[in-house]
Amino acid sequence: MSDVISFDLSVNGELRSVSAEPRKTLADVLREDLGLTGTHLGCEQGGCGACTVLLDGEVVRSCLMFGVQAQETEITTIEGIGSTGELHPMQAAFSEYHGLQCGFCTPGMILAAIDFVGRNPDPSADEIREGLNGNICRCTGYQKIVESVAAAATEMSG
Amino acid sequence: MSTTTWIGKSAARREDAPLIRGKGCYIADIAPPGVVQMAIVRSPFPHARINSIDTSAALALDGVHLVLTAADLEGIGAFPTLWRLPGQKHSDTPALAGDKVRYVGEPVAAVVADTRYIAEDALGLVDVDYDVLDHVVDTEKAIEDGAPVINEVWGDNIVIDYTFPGVNALGEEGDVEGAFAEADHVVSGKFRIGRYSGIPLETRGLVGVWDEIAQRLTLHSESQVAHLLRTELAGALGIPETAIRILTPNIGGAFGNKWDRYPEDILVSLATMRLGRPVKWIEDRREAFQATVHGREQVQEWELAVKSDGTFLGLRGRVLSDQGAHLHSTGIGPAWVTGAVAPNQYRIPNYQCQVLGVGTNKTPNSTFRGFGGPEGIFGIERMVDKAARTLGIDPAALRAHNYIQADEFPYFSPAGGVYDSGNYPEALSKALEAVNYEELRAEQKTLKEQGVHRGIGIASYIHVSGFGPSAILGMLDYYTGGYEGSTVKIDPHGKATVYTGMIPMGQGTETTLAQVAADQLAIDIADVRVVWGDTDQTPYTGFGSAGSRSNVAAAAVMKAIEEIKAKAVRLGAQLLEADAEDVEYVDGRVSVKGAGEMKSLSLGEVAQEAYWGHHIPEGDQPSLEATYVYDPANFTTAFGTHIAVVDVDVETGQIEFVKYVVVDDCGTIINPLLVEGQIHGALGQGLGGALLEEFVYDSETGMLLTTSLMDYLLPTFTDLPEFETHQLVTPSPSSEGGFKGMGEAGCFPAAPAVANAVCDALAEYGVEVDQTPITPNRVWRLIEEAKANT
Predict the structure, then answer these.
(1) For residue B2, what pLDDT is reported?
(2) d(CA B327, CA B358)
(3) Is the pLDDT of residue B1 over 70?
(4) CA-to-CA distance for B645 and B760, rounded, in angstroms?
(5) N or C: which end of chain A has fewer CB within 10 A?
């Protein structure tokens, strides 16, 4: 406990001060120190993608890096996407097309999908499957997620 | 007449709004002030005697508050095995191992510290002195003479030897010997079903909060069956049930694995009671592989007696079910279900099946989506295809020849069950039509000439769902109830609140129950609130969210609302000064028949009167609410046929999907979109076990080798095909509303459909797939062995 250090993180457009051990993962800092529990931990091994956040717009697994390493970056978590009454098209599509069941993978999945559609605005079903292959969903069998992402891509480019 | 504005509609899920925003509340998100964290010391050995445990170094670490070992558990009980078939041996699963550990991952000590980081630091400081014992992790070796005995009180490693006598519910007994004597052909097969499990993306976890002043424990838990947990926890801790409240947050997947009771339920409760501070435990992924129950794993041997024309005469088999080191919450229940479903959709008058539960030095094998059913369907569906090849009959035609026909229901199975309804030939026809079967067969020949090995695999299944009239569970020595209760309250403004013991874990229970209630009351679905996840508020559940129980819970809601409507009519008649027989409940109003607007009251107006209580009819009480506990009259039998079309690369053993067609029938459908979601999800898990997923144990060391998502392969986006789903609707005559449970159905036919397709693709080699998962290396080896033998 003695080696707690203080540092700043820019999360969802807001500068936040953190006091945490240097060994604390970014996921734990987000969840425990900043109260952003929408970032989920499915394996803490980098294997499932549930903890996906965006760092300067790029997809990263927040369980595989330390909080202190995220200084000087712009972090986006699921809490930074959409708002009440104004959902992001990806969030709306996941609900409309039943792209989620238990919802545990969903925040990471939505962030990964937003990143993917940003790079590929008009993806085929196969491209969506390839593009999101690092994120695991245990509930849906994926088909409804593919439909959700395809619909959101159309909406976002329209 | 009830209208069906909502039943049958793909109503939007009310569960979604918080979840897509990251605003759900899962167990790990719960952090009461002052919470401390638990971590568990687990056995590194498959079988060892514990000589001593020294906790002093761990306790000396700054930030550590408590270390529990078996010595601290005096007076603390263990959770019972609920399914106790006659002859099943009993043994307690202790919360912490006492003198012996029996599998890698068994809890040995629990450490509580300020943070999880410190608690995990302290794990290495707990010094456990072990004497390693001989182990056995192979199912068949465990029952050989001289095998190490896992649990001394068992005497040997056979925990049960149970034989289905082949007598149906009418008392008609088959003649298995006679059937085999009469047969033109006897087809035999031996199959190894791999060990895999639900692997919910959210691991298990608990937060216990002891209120010292009220002397009451609040346990935040992901249990699928909170009331049962409360009952058993009270028993184990030796405190009254009234002193325990179980609260359920969002659940990140459960798949049966979270139905069982676990040692950690006791450990977290004890720790918070001893420390007087909230205690939290979140299982890590490595622990989840070792310590959350496994599923499946059987070695099956079957013989099918057939006539030359394809008629099935008899089926007999032996199922070895690898139970692991302890009989967990459901005992050998899943293996019993394997024996109960194996005759499947076929007329097989003569049946016998011996089920042996086998102890091994592995994680306990218990509840997992499908609950023994998929294993039984794998066995019979592989046998049917083997018979088809032996007889030179098309596998679709052989199935059609032996199906129970639509006019034969209720059908009394030789395994003892009663099938309520179905139309098996129609499901097959629809599936064959969907894949264009004739054309596909022709195309297969052409492709073969081009060197493409395409295979078509058919698998039909039954899924016994809505588990249980309670009396039948009693006959099976299953110490749970088969009922579900629901309380429905209409408030003075006419809005409804539904209380259910069911727990949503992704399947959309909250939405479907709201649909049912809105329809029954003929009110807007927005005016229905569903309350779940609090044992202080919700009715006791017999079985909880498992075994595809939404149908039973929905029926309870319907019956409670029937009572409310009857009361509203009685009260309305009094207020409208009419005879009750002349008053009806229609469109959310209580009205005098044929009298129009003047003689009519809204539900809200009647409800307000009900709560004022000024004009309550004699024999009634004020308020407008009802509780109904619905115990189903029979099991429901969902069914279907799936067809997998695959290409097999004979150089690498790689399997590629060309098509996957599904025809399912789950009776009356409440929400088609959610049903499709359940079918897809269960299929994903069925295909995972068919192709990829396996807990691998090293027989030399007894170690579990698959303890990360890099070793244990969950299906990814690119591993699963696009599913083409079709629905038949044969309403169940034995369940309220005609619903059948179906959340597990997709698990059943997935593996045999793929296995049959692979065998079909490799027919020229005579390959018979006898093991799951069907990995490329296994397929490649089968091909190479076949080549070597010719």
Answers:
(1) 46
(2) 10
(3) no
(4) 10
(5) C
Interface test with A, best of B9, B13, B21, B722 (most A CBs within 10 A): B21
Tell me the pLDDT tens digit for each residue of B275-312.
999 999 999 999 999 999 999 999 999 999 999 999 99
Please give the biggest Cα pair distance in chain A. 54
Domain that holds residue B317: 295-469+633-789
Q: Which of B26, B121, B201, B661 is most worth mutating to test chain A (most A CB atoms within 10 A of its CB)?
A: B201
**For residue B546, what pLDDT band results from cuts at 50, 70 and 90?**
low
Residues recorded for chain B: 790
* In a shared domain, residues B245 and B314: no
Residue of B24, B63, B685 with shortest CB distance to A103: B24
Contact A141 B198 (CB under 8 A): no
Q: Which residues of A touch B19 (CB under 8 A)?
A: 100, 103, 106
Q: What's the CATH number where B84 sits?
A: 3.90.1170.50
- Structure confidence at residue B735 as a pLDDT band (50, 70, 90): confident
Task: Please report residues of B whose CB lies closer than 8 A to that of A107.
Answer: 22
Question: Is B326 inside any structural domain?
Answer: yes
Interface pTM, i.e. ipTM: 0.98
Distance, C-alpha B466 to centroid of its chain: 11
End of a domain among B240, B275, B291?
B291
**Domains contained in chain A, number:** 2
Instruction: Let me know: does B575 contact B528? Beta carbons within 8 Å.
Output: no
Residue to substitute from A83, A98, A128, interface B, most B β-carbons within 10 A: A98
Is the backbone of residue B8 left (phi > 0), alpha (psi -120 to 50) or beta? left
pLDDT for residue B216 is more than 60: yes
CA gyration radius, chain B: 28
Q: Are residues B377 and B394 in the same domain?
A: yes
Is A138 close to B12, i.e. CB distance below 8 A? no
How far does the CA of residue A82 sit from the closest CA of chain B (Å)? 7
Mean pLDDT of the region B181-207: 98
pTM recorded for the entire structure:
0.96
Judgement on whether residues B300 and B439 belong to the same structural domain of the protein: yes
Whether B717 and A128 lie within 8 Å, measured CB to CB = yes
Strands B496-500 and B528-531: parallel
Q: The domain that contains B376 carries what CATH number?
A: 3.30.365.10
Cβ-Cβ contacts under 8 Å between A and B: the total is 176
| B729 located within any domain | yes
> Residue A75 is part of which domain span?
5-80
Q: Are residues B551 and B433 in the same domain?
A: no
Is B744 a residue whose pLDDT tops 60? Answer: yes
The answer to the question of residue B488 being in a domain is yes
Strands (E), B102-252: 107-113, 127-132, 158-164, 185-196, 205-211, 216-221, 244-247
**Contact across the interface for B680 and A100, Cβ inside 8 Å:** no
The residues pairing with B167 across neighbouring beta strands, listed in sequence order, are B173
Among residues B601, B630, B659, the one where a domain terminates is B630
CB contact under 8 A, A136 and B709: yes
Per-residue pLDDT at B652: 97
**Chain A residues touching B15 at Cβ < 8 A:** 103
Q: Is residue B246 part of a domain?
A: yes
Q: For B330-360, write each residue's pLDDT tens digit.
A: 999 999 999 999 999 999 999 999 999 999 9
Same domain as B642, residue B555: no
How far is residue B591's CA from residue B406's CA, in Å, rounded to a whole number?
42
Same domain, B782 and B765: yes
Highest mean pLDDT among B255-259, B635-639, B737-741: B255-259
Test B16 with A39 for CB contact under 8 angstroms. no
**Inter-chain residue contact B708 with A45, CB threshold 8 Å:** yes
Closest CA to B641 of B753, B724, B720, B730: B753
Asked if the Cβ–Cβ distance from B506 to A101 is below 8 Å, we say yes
Spatial separation of the C-alpha atoms in residues B138 and B599, rounded to whole Å: 75
Q: Do B717 and A130 touch (CB under 8 A)?
A: yes
How far is the alpha carbon of B369 from chain A, nearest alpha carbon, in Å?
12
Judgement on whether residues A38 and A75 belong to the same structural domain of the protein? yes
| Number of domains comprising chain B | 3
If pLDDT is split at 50, 70 and 90, which confidence band does B137 have?
Answer: very high
